[in-house]
Amino acid sequence: MKPLDDIRVLSVTVFLAGPFLSMTLARFGAEVIKIEIPGSGDPIREIGPFAGPNGRSFDRETEEDLSIRFLKRSEGVKSVTLNLKDPEGKRMFLELAKDANVVVENLSPGSMTRLGLGYDEIAVVNPGIVYCSIAGYGQTGPYKDLPAHDHQIQAMSGIMDMNGSADGPPTRIGVFVGDLVTPLYAAYSILGALRHKEKTGEGQYLDASMIDTLATLMFMEPIEDVLHDGQPVRAGNDSRHGLTGLYHLTDGDVIITLGGLTRWRNLCKALGADELLKNPRYATSEDRETHVEELRAEIQGRLGELNCADGITLLENVGIPIARVRTLPEVVDDGHFRDRGTLKPMYRQDSEAPVERGIMAGFPVTFSAGSLPKLEGGAKLGHHNEEVYSRLLDLDAAELAELKKRGIL
Question: What is the set of active-site residues?
Answer without folding.
Answer: 241
